[in-house]
Amino acid sequence: EKFSPSASLGLPPPSLNTSASIPRSPRLLPFSATPYQSPQHSGGHEPRPIPGTADSASHPPPPAAMDKAALVAEPVSAAAAGSFSSLRAYGRALAQTPRRVARRACAATAPGEEMSRVRARSGPRMARALRWHDLVGLGLGGMVGAGIFVTTGHATRLYAGPGVVVSYAIAGLCALLSAFCYTEFAVEMPVAGGAFSYLRVTFGEFAAFLTGANLIMEYVFSNAAVARSFTAYLGTAVGVDSPSKWRIAVPGLPQGFNEVDLVAVGVILLISVCICYSTKESSSVNMVLTAVHVAFILFIIVMGFVHGDARNLTRPADPARNPGGFFPHGAAGVFNGAAMVYLSYIGYDAVSTMAEEVERPERDIPAGVSGSVVLVTVLYCLMAVSMSMLLPYDAIDADAPFSGAFTGKAGMKWVSNVIGAGASLGILTSLMVAMLGQARYLCVIGRSGVMPPWLAKVHPRTATPVNASAFLGAVTAALALLADLDVLLNLVSIGTLFVFYMVANAVVFRRYTGNSGERRRKTLAFIVAFSLVAVCFTLLWHLVPSGHGGHGGVKAGLLAGCGALAVAVVAAFQKLVPQARAPELWGVPAMPWVPAASVFLNVFLLGSLDRASYVRFGVFSGATVLVYVLYSVHASYDADEGGGGGGGAKVVDEGCEV
């Protein structure tokens, strides 16, 4: 159903005048249906090249380009003056909420619009100054944080034993599969929005806003927690055991909010100033810090090989109570360990948000994202072997595996101080990359119209999203000042895993649907069916008891059945539904098996998180839906459908059904 403000007010129908100079703002398309690229009807314009083709590189679409030829100009009425121009206007907008939600929630933009008209809302362009080695450095800095020192200990002691090295290899392979999905989108659509933009062009506005808002909230909370942990690790590096000695106690405040951490605030503000000043300079600083951090990690690895004992790889400290061997808890322990250590790879997704600032996306993004994942996997595996050689797996301190191992050796306590210094550098690099990524997420969310456009502005001199960076820096610093958040909050990132799951599904959807409604239904049916099979496998893995008796055989049989069913579903989909489109520059190999494996893995990992993570995700999601209904849907309606354009004529795309 097409909505016409002039008809609703009893005004005469507008006249068609394609030569008039009018602002062009085409209506969004449902579920990434790519519009037909036709010549412009205003005199003298050449046909607009399809985004992603060879012609589009030399003839980029103008910011005001349209996707359809049939345009109807309508005068903007008083009712279309903007949903937030007055209380009365906002009341009218709220009354229209159900219709606007139905109209906008599944409306998707085309990639060409994201790279032209939507991007133009930020004003000046971000500087394309990054190359593949910058992206590798950002990926290393984002992934290799202080959490690796704790994650390795927990996975080794509780689940995998010395086989944790295999857990890291499996997790690294799975991270590479997810990175492939991000890379295809980032090369095709090099904009700063990362997963938000990818989901917006595929599943529509609401799905993108729900996942993007959850991701930003988790970024802010985890960054505040990591900044406070910097105080603790820095204290370890200089010999101060208790971080409370560096914090100011405030009597009268509730427990958990009564210690002011000025060091954490200073770190956040310093990083905020750096990323506001220049992306290239921030990348250079990150490169230096990451190089020093990697040098610390290599030092720890060498010390483990030099002072370790290879017999610890198969021999427990207490053979009477703990099983021996390289895989003391079998395959189940290795996969449970992989589920835990996989969260140490989170951070490469932030690299995709830098796509708008990369010199040659088709070359630099695949090398930068995939290269950083491969290098991190090698480092993690070497660290796991080094730690397993230092001590038997059942004698490792789960909370401080490396420093605890060296503390127990005569004359080696100084190594613990070195580990503290390395962890402090890891915190700085992971904070910088995370804050770079969160600012670009928020910038593009502002561009889309669902958040205030002030957040989307790019500074003309620095070519960075200064407003988004400063706003999120201030919020993060305020949280880090008082709130004693869990140091490991960033390791329980349900929002990030949910985004990985959505992006993998989005790759399948865009490759197989095209403009066909029948293809769309079949692809959605595959996504739902495969996700349900993955959920069943996850529930069986976690709920059916294991053992050496009948229970173990039943569980193995059920898991094998689910695995075979998952393979059959993917094979049937591949045979029955051919691909509708092929990527022009870079694509995920072995479709649809690679994204399907990523979906399966992320569902499995989501099932391994604790109840508190789901409670937090539910609270965040509820708050996001409330913001969308009360503000975002009306703001985006004004931005894209003529509500608050500030006067002039409105353009309605007659050929688009929403």
TrEMBL record:
Chief location of this protein within or outside the cell: membrane
Presence of the UniProt keyword Nucleotidyltransferase in the record: no
One Pfam family in the UniProt entry: AA_permease_2
Keywords: Membrane, Transmembrane, Transmembrane helix
Topology class, membrane: Multi-pass membrane protein
GO terms assigned for molecular function: amino acid transmembrane transporter activity
Annotated transmembrane regions: 135-153, 165-185, 197-217, 260-278, 285-306, 326-348, 369-391, 418-443, 464-483, 489-512, 524-544, 556-573, 585-607, 613-631
Keyword Calcium among record annotations: no
Cross-referenced PANTHER family: CATIONIC AMINO ACID TRANSPORTER 7, CHLOROPLASTIC (PTHR43243:SF41), INNER MEMBRANE TRANSPORTER YGJI-RELATED (PTHR43243)
Superkingdom of the source species: Eukaryota
The organism's taxonomic lineage, starting at the top: Eukaryota, Viridiplantae, Streptophyta, Embryophyta, Tracheophyta
Record's protein name: Cationic amino acid transporter C-terminal domain-containing protein
Localization per Swiss-Prot or TrEMBL: Membrane
A cellular component annotation (GO) from this entry: plasma membrane
Family: Belongs to the amino acid-polyamine-organocation (APC) superfamily. Cationic amino acid transporter (CAT) (TC 2.A.3.3) family.
Domain Cationic amino acid transporter C-terminal span(s) in chain numbering: 586-636
Region (Disordered), start-end ranges: 1-65
Residue spans of biased composition, Low complexity class: 1-10
